[in-house]
Amino acid sequence: MSITIPDFSAYLHTHAQLQEAIAGISEEQLTWKPRSDQWSLTEVLSHLADHNLVVSFRIRAILAGATAQLPAFDQDAWVSGAKANGGSASDILAAFQALLIYNTSLFQRLSAEDWAKTGVNFKGQTLTLADVVHSFIAHVQHHLGQLERIKNVLKARV
After folding, report:
1. What SUPFAM superfamilies does the record tag this protein with (predicted)?
2. Domains of the chain with bracketed CATH
Protein backbone atom coordinates (compact mmCIF):
# COMPACT_ATOMS: atom_id res chain seq x y z
CA MET A 1 0.00 0.00 0.00
CA SER A 2 1.38 3.38 -1.02
CA ILE A 3 0.83 6.22 1.45
CA THR A 4 0.92 9.84 0.34
CA ILE A 5 2.33 11.87 3.19
CA PRO A 6 0.35 15.10 3.59
CA ASP A 7 1.79 18.36 2.37
CA PHE A 8 2.72 20.15 5.59
CA SER A 9 2.64 23.52 3.86
CA ALA A 10 -0.98 22.91 2.71
CA TYR A 11 -1.84 21.86 6.25
CA LEU A 12 -0.28 24.98 7.77
CA HIS A 13 -1.71 27.20 5.03
CA THR A 14 -5.26 26.48 6.20
CA HIS A 15 -4.79 29.13 8.89
CA ALA A 16 -3.81 31.82 6.37
CA GLN A 17 -6.74 30.81 4.18
CA LEU A 18 -9.16 31.27 7.07
CA GLN A 19 -7.61 34.61 8.04
CA GLU A 20 -7.90 35.80 4.46
CA ALA A 21 -11.51 34.64 4.29
CA ILE A 22 -12.54 36.94 7.15
CA ALA A 23 -10.21 39.86 6.44
CA GLY A 24 -11.96 43.21 6.63
CA ILE A 25 -15.15 41.82 8.13
CA SER A 26 -16.57 43.65 11.14
CA GLU A 27 -17.33 41.94 14.47
CA GLU A 28 -21.03 42.43 13.81
CA GLN A 29 -20.74 40.75 10.43
CA LEU A 30 -18.65 37.91 11.88
CA THR A 31 -21.47 36.99 14.27
CA TRP A 32 -24.39 37.56 11.88
CA LYS A 33 -26.33 34.41 10.99
CA PRO A 34 -28.12 33.94 7.66
CA ARG A 35 -30.86 32.05 9.53
CA SER A 36 -31.27 31.01 13.15
CA ASP A 37 -30.49 27.40 12.20
CA GLN A 38 -27.29 28.31 10.31
CA TRP A 39 -23.84 29.22 11.55
CA SER A 40 -22.22 32.63 11.53
CA LEU A 41 -18.69 33.14 10.23
CA THR A 42 -17.41 32.99 13.82
CA GLU A 43 -19.30 29.76 14.44
CA VAL A 44 -17.77 28.18 11.34
CA LEU A 45 -14.33 29.14 12.63
CA SER A 46 -15.18 27.73 16.05
CA HIS A 47 -16.29 24.48 14.44
CA LEU A 48 -12.98 24.26 12.60
CA ALA A 49 -11.04 24.85 15.83
CA ASP A 50 -13.14 22.11 17.49
CA HIS A 51 -12.51 19.83 14.53
CA ASN A 52 -8.79 20.54 14.82
CA LEU A 53 -8.92 19.50 18.50
CA VAL A 54 -10.69 16.25 17.66
CA VAL A 55 -8.37 15.49 14.74
CA SER A 56 -5.37 16.18 16.98
CA PHE A 57 -6.72 13.56 19.39
CA ARG A 58 -7.36 11.12 16.53
CA ILE A 59 -3.78 11.57 15.30
CA ARG A 60 -2.39 10.73 18.71
CA ALA A 61 -4.76 7.81 19.21
CA ILE A 62 -3.63 6.29 15.90
CA LEU A 63 0.05 6.79 16.73
CA ALA A 64 -0.45 5.25 20.17
CA GLY A 65 -2.00 2.16 18.59
CA ALA A 66 -5.39 2.68 20.22
CA THR A 67 -7.91 0.03 19.22
CA ALA A 68 -10.98 2.02 20.25
CA GLN A 69 -13.04 3.74 17.57
CA LEU A 70 -11.72 7.21 16.78
CA PRO A 71 -13.90 9.83 18.44
CA ALA A 72 -16.67 11.69 16.67
CA PHE A 73 -18.36 14.83 17.93
CA ASP A 74 -21.70 16.56 17.58
CA GLN A 75 -20.55 19.68 15.76
CA ASP A 76 -23.77 21.65 16.25
CA ALA A 77 -23.90 20.88 19.97
CA TRP A 78 -20.23 21.82 20.38
CA VAL A 79 -20.68 25.16 18.59
CA SER A 80 -23.87 25.89 20.52
CA GLY A 81 -22.53 24.67 23.87
CA ALA A 82 -19.39 26.75 23.51
CA LYS A 83 -21.51 29.85 22.80
CA ALA A 84 -19.14 30.31 19.88
CA ASN A 85 -20.74 33.51 18.62
CA GLY A 86 -19.68 35.18 21.88
CA GLY A 87 -16.05 34.35 21.14
CA SER A 88 -13.47 36.30 19.23
CA ALA A 89 -12.65 35.16 15.70
CA SER A 90 -9.02 36.17 16.22
CA ASP A 91 -8.78 34.10 19.44
CA ILE A 92 -10.39 31.12 17.70
CA LEU A 93 -7.92 31.38 14.81
CA ALA A 94 -4.99 31.68 17.23
CA ALA A 95 -6.01 28.39 18.87
CA PHE A 96 -6.49 26.81 15.43
CA GLN A 97 -3.00 27.93 14.38
CA ALA A 98 -1.39 26.75 17.61
CA LEU A 99 -2.69 23.23 16.98
CA LEU A 100 -1.45 23.33 13.39
CA ILE A 101 2.03 24.26 14.55
CA TYR A 102 2.03 21.71 17.37
CA ASN A 103 0.85 18.92 15.06
CA THR A 104 3.32 19.86 12.32
CA SER A 105 6.20 19.54 14.78
CA LEU A 106 4.93 16.01 15.46
CA PHE A 107 4.50 15.23 11.75
CA GLN A 108 8.13 16.07 11.08
CA ARG A 109 9.21 13.29 13.44
CA LEU A 110 7.12 10.58 11.82
CA SER A 111 8.30 7.76 9.59
CA ALA A 112 6.52 6.34 6.56
CA GLU A 113 5.41 3.46 8.81
CA ASP A 114 3.83 5.94 11.22
CA TRP A 115 1.86 7.57 8.39
CA ALA A 116 0.53 4.11 7.43
CA LYS A 117 -0.84 3.38 10.93
CA THR A 118 -4.60 3.09 11.04
CA GLY A 119 -7.66 3.75 13.13
CA VAL A 120 -11.37 3.10 12.66
CA ASN A 121 -13.67 6.11 12.41
CA PHE A 122 -17.25 6.40 13.65
CA LYS A 123 -18.50 5.16 10.25
CA GLY A 124 -16.52 1.95 10.65
CA GLN A 125 -13.99 2.93 7.97
CA THR A 126 -10.32 2.13 8.47
CA LEU A 127 -8.22 5.25 7.86
CA THR A 128 -4.48 5.76 7.81
CA LEU A 129 -2.95 8.63 9.69
CA ALA A 130 -2.23 10.22 6.31
CA ASP A 131 -5.94 9.88 5.42
CA VAL A 132 -6.92 11.70 8.61
CA VAL A 133 -4.65 14.65 7.83
CA HIS A 134 -5.68 14.78 4.16
CA SER A 135 -9.32 14.74 5.27
CA PHE A 136 -8.69 17.59 7.69
CA ILE A 137 -7.25 19.75 4.91
CA ALA A 138 -10.23 18.90 2.66
CA HIS A 139 -12.63 19.68 5.51
CA VAL A 140 -11.18 23.16 5.90
CA GLN A 141 -11.51 23.68 2.13
CA HIS A 142 -15.18 22.70 2.34
CA HIS A 143 -15.79 25.24 5.09
CA LEU A 144 -13.92 27.95 3.19
CA GLY A 145 -16.70 27.55 0.64
CA GLN A 146 -19.25 27.92 3.42
CA LEU A 147 -17.55 31.11 4.62
CA GLU A 148 -17.75 32.50 1.07
CA ARG A 149 -21.45 31.67 0.82
CA ILE A 150 -22.15 33.47 4.11
CA LYS A 151 -20.12 36.47 2.96
CA ASN A 152 -22.10 36.57 -0.30
CA VAL A 153 -25.37 36.69 1.64
CA LEU A 154 -23.90 39.45 3.80
CA LYS A 155 -22.97 41.46 0.70
CA ALA A 156 -26.47 41.04 -0.72
CA ARG A 157 -27.93 42.52 2.48
CA VAL A 158 -26.07 45.80 2.00
Report:
1. DinB/YfiT-like putative metalloenzymes
2. 8-157 (1.20.120.450)
